[in-house]
Specification:
Low-confidence stretches: 69-73
Order of helices and strands: EEEHHEEEEEE
Radius of gyration: 21 Å
Number of helices: 2
Distance between the termini: 47 Å
Largest sheet: 9 strands, mixed
Helix content: 10-25%
Number of strands: 9
Structural class: mainly beta
Shape: globular
């Protein structure tokens, strides 16, 4: 019986090529030609614990505190105590897969990803990217995810997506083979079902 959050991860290989450190005016700069992560398998479980009912104002304060914490996170904020900037010509993640579970007293929702490939060109983190509203850390990127499955009894849903593809160089985005069905008709929750063969977006902008 799982009562606490846990994470398990296996990584076949991490390769960094052409790496160099520079020091200038008491600041450290890292550059690399490539950074590759191969065959990652991640399993994460989040346990949602039921808390005693609190008044509405207390809940709103808790949400506001969480939002404030999230806004203080940025890639630069995480690396700045060690490095002033990171520049990597190409980042590649290949053959990654993941499973994410959300467990409470009544349900366990399971989200799976069979295969994920990602590539980013001219990746850079520095003080100019230390804005929560800016997510452009690279000149271009692409990813391809296949075998996406969400088994979600808490919402009475089972959803499968054959593939999810995005490439900012070719300006293409596609979601393929979407299948949604309900888990039960004997429920107080709404339910729906259907299939979508493909959703495509051409000439996608990336600024």
């Amino acid at each position: 019986n799982i009562t606490e959050d846990y994470i398990e991860a296996e990584i076949k290989a991490i390769a960094v090529r052409g790496i160099a450190f520079e020091r200038e005016e008491a600041q450290t700069f890292l550059t690399a030609r490539s950074f590759d992560i191969l065959s990652t398998d991640i399993h994460y479980c989040s346990v949602v614990k039921q808390e005693p009912q609190k008044d509405h104002m207390s809940k709103q304060v808790k949400i506001a505190q969480a939002d404030s914490l999230i806004q203080n996170w940025s890639l630069y904020g995480m690396i700045s105590p060690i490095l002033h900037s990171i520049v990597i010509k190409q980042i590649k993640i290949a053959d990654a897969k993941a499973e994410y579970r959300v467990k409470d007293d009544t349900h366990t929702d399971i989200y799976k990803l069979d295969k994920f490939d990602f590539m980013a060109n001219n990746f850079k983190i520095d003080s100019a990217k230390n804005d929560i509203n800016r997510f452009k850390y690279s000149d271009s990127f692409a990813f391809n995810a296949t075998g996406i499955h969400g088994y979600i009894p808490s919402k009475n849903h089972d959803i499968k997506i054959g593939g999810l593809f995005l490439n900012t160089d070719t300006r293409q985005f596609e979601i393929a083979d979407i299948k949604l069905k309900h888990l039960s008709t004997k429920t107080r929750s709404d339910y729906m079902f259907g299939t979508v063969k493909s959703i495509k977006v051409e000439e996608l902008g990336y600024n």
